[in-house]
Amino acid sequence: MVNIKELQPESSLRAAYGARLRRARESWGWRQEDLSERIGCSSQHISAVETARKPPTLSFSRKADQVLGTKGTKDSFERAWHEMRHGILLEGFPEYVDYEERAVEIRLFQIGIIPGLLQTPEYAKALASGHVQRGTLTQEQADEGVAFLIERQARLARERPPMLLVVVDESCIRRPVGGREVMDAQLQGLIEFTRMPNSVLQVAPFAIGEHRAFNLPVNLLTLPDRSMVSYGESHGQGHVDRESSSVLPLLTGYHQLQGACLSQADSVAMIEQVRKGTL
């Protein structure tokens, strides 16, 4: 007799998703093997999603909707996926991510930590682990956040990727995260990023002092119609702004910041110096 694990859909959004998937599958009279053949994955994967051991992806959710007849309904798995993902994100950030997927240029400035789009999985996991240890996230929320970040990174690796212009404060490359091996790999990842044809990376050194244009992180997007969007965060909320009266001054400040920063070649040289100190 097959041992069927009892589900607890009330325990988390991921568990609720898994329970819904099992109910839908069983309503068609299908085994996990039957559903896996139709979706194009292993039966082990279906089992892991149903029992909340593995988070579903957007692609998986869309395939499930097509196979199970739930596409476009209030019970669609794509809708459940968005609810699950957005549940771990600040208000306003899901809207920003929608714009990010369509952007032709992305300008980022970060203080203290490497920007998410440039983080290695190990670096991202180390940051998430810190949240778990402080009690600001559960382990499941941390895992989902890292998975969502990796999916964001993957979606930008499209046929015509956006131009990525990134400025990191020197504190980003000097702040140790996750131990020597994790930090070394992250710094190497930054160097590899500079070799991409659609990337520019600059370090804002401590030496620029009061000439650093921003004291908070900056996210600026240029959309296909050349309109611009900015995104900022307070402690508990994110905010998307499309008003040119507030976005354009940020663009001006960004250009001024780039002018005060190290060149990309000098930035790579600094990262190499810091990296040697982490070995």
Low-confidence stretches: none
Q: Which strand order do you get reading across the main beta sheet? A: 3-2-1-4-5-6
Query: What is the arithmetic mean of pLDDT?
Result: 90
How many domains make up the 3D coordinates? Answer: 2
How does this structure look, described?
It is a single chain. The chain is of the alpha/beta class and 279 residues long. The protein folds into 2 domains: 71 residues, lambda repressor-like DNA-binding domains (434 Repressor (Amino-terminal Domain), Orthogonal Bundle); 186 residues, 2-Layer Sandwich (Endonuclease, Chain A), CATH 3.30.870. The protein is 52% helix and 12% strand. It contains 12 helices and 6 strands. It has a 6-stranded mixed beta sheet, with helices on both faces. Strand 5 and strand 6 form a beta hairpin. Helix 4 packs antiparallel against helix 5 and helix 7 packs antiparallel against helix 8. The longest helix has 17 residues. The protein is elongated and about 65 Å long. The N and C termini lie far apart (54 Å). The mean pLDDT is 90.
